[in-house]
Amino acid sequence: MSTSDAQSGPSILESPSKPVAHGRAFAPGRTLRQGGKVLPEHARGHNRSLVLQTLFHQGAMSRADLARETGLTRVTMSDLVAELIADGFVAEMGVREASGPGKPAMLIDLDRDGHRIVGIDLSGNDSLIGAVLTLDGSIVARREVPLPVAADLVSTMVDLARALVADSHAPVLGIGVGTPGVVDDRGVILTAPNFGWAGFDLEGALRGALGLPVLVANDANAAVLAEYTFGGAADDVLLVKVGRGVGSGLLASGQPMRGSRFAAGEIGHVTVGTDGGPQCACGKVGCLEAWLSVPALTSRLAAASAPADREGILRDAGERLGIALAPVVGALDVSEIVLSGPPELLSGPLAEEALATLRARTLAQPHEGVRVRMTQQGDDIVLRGAAVMVLSGQLGVS
Amino acid sequence: MSTSDAQSGPSILESPSKPVAHGRAFAPGRTLRQGGKVLPEHARGHNRSLVLQTLFHQGAMSRADLARETGLTRVTMSDLVAELIADGFVAEMGVREASGPGKPAMLIDLDRDGHRIVGIDLSGNDSLIGAVLTLDGSIVARREVPLPVAADLVSTMVDLARALVADSHAPVLGIGVGTPGVVDDRGVILTAPNFGWAGFDLEGALRGALGLPVLVANDANAAVLAEYTFGGAADDVLLVKVGRGVGSGLLASGQPMRGSRFAAGEIGHVTVGTDGGPQCACGKVGCLEAWLSVPALTSRLAAASAPADREGILRDAGERLGIALAPVVGALDVSEIVLSGPPELLSGPLAEEALATLRARTLAQPHEGVRVRMTQQGDDIVLRGAAVMVLSGQLGVS
Asked: What is the pLDDT of residues B25-56, one digit of tens each?
């Protein structure tokens, strides 16, 4: 197999009209402090992203509609659309029935089948999961391989990614990877104890091996992007990912929170309450993870005999989640907590108790409207989030 | 008295080269979703702010240095500087000694005395405090009036602002106000129980009466801006303001956090711990405010006889602050907690215990580097933050 499919298509990275990578370039505070000027090519990249973003969210429309929606002139729009058609990102979809006099309008849309994205999820318990996704985030092919020993992890990922690129049958826009651990904004794994990585440039290693754009992020940070782009999440949302560990991804005003050391969202080892709690693997007592992780919950549930005991265990875990999150809801005024993980554990009593606890422990007004709900993205949430990273990084669409 | 001083100067709001109001305009996620295009005048406003921002932070330099720092061409820079000199925001400061061959360079700087800013602080216990500030945030005049009954508050503020404008002896760039309560991004007070305000357009009322740009924000949100601009705060910082109540202001990646209902920072009525606590005025038990507010601390200290008891009271309050903030440090990976309020209460045992508790209740790596410190801005922090709001809103400087 080879990556020839991908390389025969127009490469975004080599294109003279390379779009601004909004996922990273738009950190206005830092940009200003570092002295970012606005050049004509920035405006062009921004406007190109704006067209793609509009089509991504609103679907097919005429060039005239696009001009109206974006505020750009018809001439500018005509040039931009021609360029995007030549690059294979936009296609003409046929004419719309004319509703009045005049020529019927040609509809333009994102060419959702013109490119593919490869997503890889390293957060599984015992397997690596990969998928080929359309620009819509639909999964069109999927592969799963057993988790190898740590020393073979990168070569196994490279093989998996190559197989998925071969499955793609269209140019591949890029490869997104969601992984446990703390990941910096260059895709360097600062720490991922599960895999023994510390300061490892996973993004660079994969890019070098695959010859395609690669974007690597923490799995929960990827997941919250999927929830925002495909799950209708609010602009201020915290996604709690419950698996072997407990992590979270956070958006404020629709922007991903990174943190001062790229460790935003690391709530698994925050101590909950002032009355002790279960022993945590980290050595402390009463960490959120010790209350809420899948292994912790399943072992406590297995020891419970009566259904009422089982419900009590889930309610206790939900209460602890609410106790841990109340200060975060207060400080950030998030409007929504989204839970990702086994629904048989998280939905029902656990989510109900988390909400009741959040309401009891924050100021009624303005926080009484806060919601707690399960994601509808299921087990594909990290894969779809990885696709959003590529859409955002390569096309400026989010 | 009149506002003629201010109105005789160049009004930013009427200038054809009005800069982008970075404090509000730059919310990239929302901007994209709402379809913001980049126009030439945006680039011009951005570059104008960039020049002001560079001079604000780095001080006097030549046009050639400015061009190099900002990446703009010398021709563009020359035009921009001419425009900014004409508007009274930039001045020539004299030539620098030539270090080599060639013409000695004329130094350019922000005209720090060319304009004044008026700041008003409504967070005092029993007075309204106002000041005239330079563009540097230095206070050059100050007035204080007793807090009137609620019905007279706006007219008292207007009188105070007019007196300060008269004190200014230079064009007034704008008026910044820091107030307790939840304030939206248009300066409407959504709720401020102390003053009986709910849905009150304070910004509009003051602008109408004063004929000058007015910017209103929550007092703790103003304070964190002062700490960021003048106090050397990190990009990811939480400022806790302790007075009659307890509030906070939060920056992530140097950007102010607003929250889904503009209530970010409202941590005073978050319940702390799971072992009860003092009764709070809100009706709940164990709110952070019931542990930490100045009235709560002073009344408990007054009842203590031995110095050891007093230290114990302060340590307990610091521990509660650490318990409340640990999940926030985990979720946001802030690197610094700054305390604002009476140093005789907050510095020493209280701050020490807060730090020790934070460290004990979060993941050692990456959070062991988190700091807790007192602000050096003293009681002027809200006034200086109000000035930053005006600098940011009117000049794009932060």
From this structure: 222 222 223 335 555 566 778 888 999 999 99
Tell me the residues of chain A between 329 and 358 that have a Cβ less than 8 Å away from chain B. 330-336
Which ranges of chain A does DSSP label H, i.e. alpha helix? 4-8, 22-25, 28-33, 40-58, 63-70, 74-86, 153-168, 202-210, 219-230, 288-292, 294-303, 307-332, 343-346, 349-361, 364-367, 381-390
What are residue A294's phi and psi, to 5 degrees?
Answer: -60, -45
Q: Is the dihedral of CA B73, B77, B80, B83 positive or negative?
A: negative
How many Å apart are CA B338 and CA B224, to the nearest integer? 9
Q: Bigger pLDDT: A158 or A13?
A: A158
User: Do B29 and A53 count as a contact with CB atoms less than 8 A apart?
Assistant: no
Which secondary structure element, helix H or strand E, spans residue A142, and what is its range? strand A139-146
Distance from CA of A208 to the nearest CA of B (A): 29
The DSSP string of A311-361 is HHHHHHHHHHHHHHHHHHHHHH--SEEEEES-HHHHTTHHHHHHHHHHHHH
Nearest by Cα to B119 from B187, B56, B173: B173
> Is B276 part of the contact surface with chain A (CB cutoff 8 Å)?
no
- Using 50, 70 and 90 to split pLDDT, how confident is the model at A3? very low
Between B19 and A365, the more confident residue is: A365
Which is more confidently placed, A176 or A104? A176
SS3 label, residue B182: strand
Starting at the edge strand that comes first in sequence, how are the strands of the sheet with A61-62 ordered? A61-62, A106-110, A90-95
Sheet holding B172-179, edge to edge: B139-146, B127-133, B116-121, B172-179, B214-218
Q: Is the pLDDT of residue B14 over 50?
A: no
Q: Do B47 and A54 touch (CB under 8 A)?
A: no
**Average pLDDT over every residue of A271-282:** 94
pLDDT of residue B153: 96
What is the reported pLDDT for A398?
Answer: 76
Residue A22 C-alpha, separation from nearest chain B C-alpha, in angstroms: 9
What chain B holds in terms of domains, given with CATH numbers, is: 14-24+36-110 (1.10.10.10), 116-224+381-395 (3.30.420.40), 234-375 (3.30.420.40)
**Does A274 contact B at CB distance below 8 Å?**
yes
Residue in A47, A57, A366 closest to B263 by CB = A366
Whose structure tokens read 């920072």? B265
Nearest-by-Cβ selection for A29 from B38, B253, B267:
B253
Query: Which residues of chain A lie closer than 8 angstroms to B270, CB-CB?
Result: 326-327, 330, 361-363
Q: Kindly tell me if the per-residue pLDDT of A31 is higher than 70.
A: no
Instruction: Report the mean per-residue pLDDT for chain A.
Output: 88
Q: Which of A39, A54, A325, A332 to mutate: most B Cβ within 10 Å?
A: A332
Q: Measure CB to CB from residue B270 to each of A70, A263, A330 and give the nearest one.
A: A330
Cα four-point dihedral sign A61, A64, A67, A71: negative
A315-323 average pLDDT score: 98
Residue of B57, B236, B274, B287 to mutate, interface with A, max A Cβ within 10 Å: B274
Closest listed residue to residue A223, CA positions, set A81, A387, A54, A80: A387
pLDDT at A158 over 90: yes
Cβ count near A147 (within 10 Å): 17
Coil, strand, or helix at residue B247? Answer: strand
**Residue B384, phi then psi, degrees to nearest 5:** -70, -35
B322-348 pLDDT, tens per residue?
999 999 999 999 999 999 999 999 999
The beta-carbon contacts of B96-105 under 8 Å, at least 24 apart in sequence, are B96/B62, B105/B62, B105/B63, B105/B64, B105/B65
Which tokens sit at B283? 């009706």
Q: What is the mean pLDDT of residues B261-267?
A: 94
